[in-house]
Amino acid sequence: MSAPHATGALALVMERFPYLNNEQALQVLLTTATQLDGSVTQAPTTSVGWGVANLERAMRGPGQLLGTFDANLGAGLTDTWSNNISDQALIQRQAEDTAEQASWRQTLISKGWQNGVASTASQQDQADYATGTARATAAAQRQYQGSLIKSGAGRLILDGANTYRGETLVNGGVLSVNGSLVSAVQVNAGGTLGGNGQIGGLTARSGGVVAPGNSIGTLQVNGNVLLEPGSTYAVELSPTASDRIVATGSATVSGANMTLALLDNTPVALNSAPIQSVVGRQYNVLQAANGINGQFGSVTSNYAFLGGRLDYAATGVALNIEQTAAFNSVAQTPNQAAVATAAEQLGAGNAVYENLLLTQNPASARDSFQQLSGEIYPAIGSVLINDSRQIRDAVGERLGASVFGSEGNTAAQDNVWIKALGAWGKTDSRDDTAGYTTSLGGLLAGVDGNVADDTRLGVVAGYSDSSLSMGSGTHSRASVDSYHLGAYVGHEIGALRLTLGGAHSWHRIDAQRDVQVGGAAGKQKTKHNAQSTQVFTEAAYRIRLQPATLEPFANLAYVHLNTDSFTEKGDAAALSAGSDNRDAVLSTLGLRALKTIAITELQKVDLSGSLGWQHNLSNTDSEQHLAFASAGNSFNTQSVSMDRDAAAVGARASLALGRDARINLDYNGLLGTRDKTHGVGLSLDWQF
Fold first, then answer.
1. In the beta sheet, which residues pair with residue 213?
2. Phi, psi dihedral angles at 500 (to 5 degrees)
3. What's the Cα-to-Cα distance from 522 to each of 305, 368, 371, 630, rounded to whole Å?
4. pTM for this one?
5. Which one of 7, 161, 244, 593 is separated from 227 by 20 to 30 angstroms, measured CA to CA?
């Protein structure tokens, strides 16, 4: 090769292999050269050396190793050498050196130089002796086998049929053998051996990793396998196949670790048909024709619930994939434990089960359980029971002091009234259940009139729209359209006022849960009905004082809620529920204060305020029995329980717009330990 051509070709080789030094790049250029007839150069000759540079071959990596070759690929680098790499030139050099040294030994004998050359020998003999001795020393130190060291964090792929005879060391990164190696491979700490090819032997030292295949594959070993303590056999598997090591010799396992990983960690779509599971599968992961010696020290995986058990035979090791922990073993709340138990009963192949099985840590599993639990449904029941007070409060205002007259005002004979409602609330979370926020808007209208001087009778109807948004990672929300119809009566006996009322409401519930299980997302929706019925009564006694009228009161309400059965539309995470009934008995003791203030001689405003203690006399638990719609047993889900006690706060201002109309503005609040709800109302009364 002439210098200008060699220099230009070398520059291209160095550009192609930026991780090689000058000497290595030159070795690639030389060992891929060809003769003038196009044949591959096996060794340099005295006439033409290595021959003509062949850049096409050079781009595929070295053709021979002329000693120890350190391929140092940095992090993020991947390269493929596809030439058949030999050490033929070293073999020829060894033969030449062997012949030369045999001739030199004969010269030593014939010249009598076995013990050195005499000081009286001729200058020529002394020069010949020095040269021969130097060449013998050099030959004794010469390496006649090519060797490969893979270092650096990058990946090197060998695709050729490689016949170099020296050792192959993997000191860092990944060496993937997809072709073949005559050489035995030693994997040291920080290195990984992979590929689907053949190697001459395998030794994995402490910290070394053997990971057959480029995904799932088989590594053939034409010799023995030694997996030393601290080494790792990384097995990748799918429902139908796994990595394997197949050796023609023996396999000695001295407490090495086996790790498990799935080929496809992609979450199973929640709307997919039942899939083939890895649970219950057995894989032949190590086979040695001359026998298995020793055992693995451990089998580990990156999954919270998935692991393996090894069975040992004379010439093979089988890996059995099993669920190693119950789903509910990582649960920290009753809801999590309940849904975890139900999800496990779905069994292998179910998308929910499979995604939970592949959860990589307990915290992620608990997040999935929380989202699967459906705790929004008992929360909806609590909200509907709490919202029932809007009708009771509206009726109480109609039959209260402002209707029968306060501070000398008298009630009209007949009235039509309409009230706009607005409310918002927040329920704090507990350690084991999610909190939520609510809002309500609506309109109530009624007609009432005196059927006697001391008795008033009325009817009420209306519509309200409630919404609920649940937090703490449940990704659930609901809206409820409600239609109300009720009747009420009030009777006065002197300063004592007695009221009685009842109402029935029809609720249309539209709920949605955005569920994510192990990375798989799905939407679950339902539209179903509920009905609530309530009966309520109050006794109040008016005490006229200066400067205001006081009215201690006590009331009692019974609310019955019936929720129809439903089945969510969605995927494997969809839930179903049978019909559900809940009852609440609520009592309130309190005091109202009423005051009329004259704005002008003809204009007055009635002001009132109230403070009470509401006590829940019934079970405050908020729970419902749910089940996965696809299969499995039911489980009990809880939401935040209702407050046992709460402060009931109210304020109202009423202003006459003329002889026949009045406008009213009110506030009502229910302030408990966990539940806090605030409401406002604007109403108009017309008398006729």
1. 195
2. -145, 135
3. 22, 12, 11, 15
4. 0.80
5. 161
